[in-house]
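Encode chain A's predicted structure.
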Amino acid sequence: MTSSSQPKIDCHVHVFDPARFPYAPDAWYRPIGAETGTTDDLGHVLDANGIQHALIVGPNSGYGLDNRCLLDALARGAGRYKGVAVVRNDASRAELQDLQAEGVVGVAFNVALLGVDFYRDTGPLLERLRDLGLWAQVQVQADELVALRPLLQDSGARLLFDHCGRPNPQAGVGQAGFAAMLALAETGRACVKLSSLTKCSALPYPYPDAWPYVQALVEAYTPQSLVWASDWPFLRAPARIDYGPLLALFEKLLPDAEARQAIWWDTPRRLFGFGA
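Encoded structure for chain A:
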């Protein structure tokens, strides 16, 4: 099977539609121009690149705790999309169940933006996620995971890590935060997105200094606990990013067609319930 004919799921995209869903007044960042992308735009991009499904992540940028744009995209997708919502740390079980009923499969923990201290007291939220079978989608960078690992590991919640864990590109695979994430593979309930290599690279495309992190993740997690993502529409990218070259890079990094089949399709379909 050629890569172009392999079915694919993109496990990290955003939708920004400020014309229909104005940004929150206190938004920490307001995407404009090419950084925005509506539900219609997303569908065109996925269709053009042979992508069947996508996991839409509610962004802290633009919308904060306002999930209306996300939920609208899930409804309009009629099963094509699943979602990750941004919620208060004290979100109730009923609130989470309401989101779950609309296609949300997880909740975002944006440690890289809000800091470790913001999430130190989220044990009760993690327990509610565990009980509902929802994912705690965690974005950390550098060594932030070291402090949070005991909380996440003891919670029993399903853990989904963004962007290869965003290791420091200069610090190597042995750096403490990345080592902590590799160790969490042993829990059997952690998964990592092979995505946004620009966030763990000091070099331009094809981000060769990030390749050792990808290979270490493949070895630790295996394709049965890894998924692929584009991070479209490439918010705050340091240089131009295009969708097609990201697919080509993944094919180069994962030359084994069966491994790509698992990461592109089988694993995300199983973990997030696409097509169910």
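The chain has ten helices and eight strands.
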